[in-house]
């Protein structure tokens, strides 16, 4: 018992209340995110126009669709959780059921926290992009994080759910919808970024031959520097993920209460990127 990882510093009898609080907190975070996006939409229409307004509206609309999909996912997850407790507790109380299945309960709480956190981060990133103080890449990363936390929530629920459960089928359908909406956010962000960059395309027509050659050499230097930095960041990302897996625990709970090793992260992220084509 002492060797089991302690992911939460709370008493087991408090786990049941913690689950309900976290699910409610996640729902509130999503509702707040929807309101903030609506405010950003109104502000964007007042302060921008043309291509920038078109890009901002498309990104914010895709974020709104994603928030709605997450809201439905959390609602369905809550219904499935209640079904699992009612069918599995027998003569025990709800608190006793959560205490008896504390490892599963902690996983459910962690997944719920991840979903709410991802939604909050997405809105903050969208706000910075609309105000031109953030990076488009932040939105893309947040979308991937939301898709990952959604999969975590479905996996945590699936462990205890009956395979024939209608709520489980709905939850899996909601998860697919969230993934689709997250992909739409990524697509709208990338297309918007391309539109903005095309608008700000540099004009080299007035440069002399010597000036062009100098700019070309300086750009080559920057490309080499960025390639080296990219390789270093890929290695750093791999080490961060290894540490993350180590802290989160290397074992996943199975349906029969036993444990199996979690799959090791793919190492493809550490591959050296190809060098740029030399002129």
UniProtKB/TrEMBL annotation:
Ranges for domain I/LWEQ: 7-248
Highest taxon of the lineage: Eukaryota
Protein name: HIP1R protein
Chain segments carrying region Disordered: 250-279
Coiled coil region boundaries: 207-243
UniProt-listed GO biological process terms: actin filament organization; clathrin coat assembly; endocytosis
Name of the encoding gene: Hip1r
PANTHER family in the record: HUNTINGTIN INTERACTING PROTEIN 1, HUNTINGTIN-INTERACTING PROTEIN 1-RELATED PROTEIN
Major subcellular location class: cytoplasm
Protein location: Cytoplasm
An annotated GO cellular component: cortical actin cytoskeleton
Record flagged with keyword Coiled coil: yes
Keywords assigned by UniProt, alphabetized: Coiled coil, Cytoplasm
Species whose genome carries this gene: Tricholaema leucomelas (pied barbet)
Molecular-function GO term, any one: phosphatidylinositol-3,5-bisphosphate binding
């Amino acid at each position: 018992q002492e060797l089991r990882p302690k992911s939460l510093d709370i008493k087991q009898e408090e786990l049941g209340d913690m689950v309900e609080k976290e699910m409610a907190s996640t729902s509130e975070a999503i509702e707040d995110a929807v309101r903030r996006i609506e405010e950003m939409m109104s502000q964007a229409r007042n302060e921008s126009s043309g291509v920038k307004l078109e890009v901002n509206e498309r990104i914010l609309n895709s974020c709104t669709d994603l928030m709605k999909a997450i809201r439905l996912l959390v609602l369905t997850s809550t219904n499935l959780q209640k079904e699992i407790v009612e069918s599995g507790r027998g003569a025990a109380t709800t608190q006793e059921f959560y205490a008896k299945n504390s490892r599963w309960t902690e996983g459910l709480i962690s997944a719920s926290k991840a979903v709410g956190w991802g939604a909050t981060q997405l809105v903050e990133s969208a706000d910075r992009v609309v105000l031109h103080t953030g990076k488009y890449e932040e939105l893309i990363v947040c979308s991937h994080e939301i898709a990952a936390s959604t999969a975590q929530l479905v996996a945590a629920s699936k462990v205890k759910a009956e395979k024939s459960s209608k709520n489980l089928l709905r939850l899996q359908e909601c998860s697919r919808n969230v993934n689709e909406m997250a992909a739409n956010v990524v697509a709208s962000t990338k297309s918007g970024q391309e539109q903005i960059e095309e608008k700000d395309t540099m004009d080299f027509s007035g440069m002399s031959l010597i000036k062009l050659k100098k700019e070309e050499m300086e750009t080559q230097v920057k490309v080499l520097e960025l390639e080296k930095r990219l390789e270093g960041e890929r290695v750093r990302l791999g080490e961060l993920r290894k540490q993350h897996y180590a802290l989160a625990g290397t074992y996943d709970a199975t349906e029969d209460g036993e444990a199996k090793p979690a799959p090791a992260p793919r190492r493809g992220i550490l591959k050296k990127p190809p060098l740029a084509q030399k002129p």
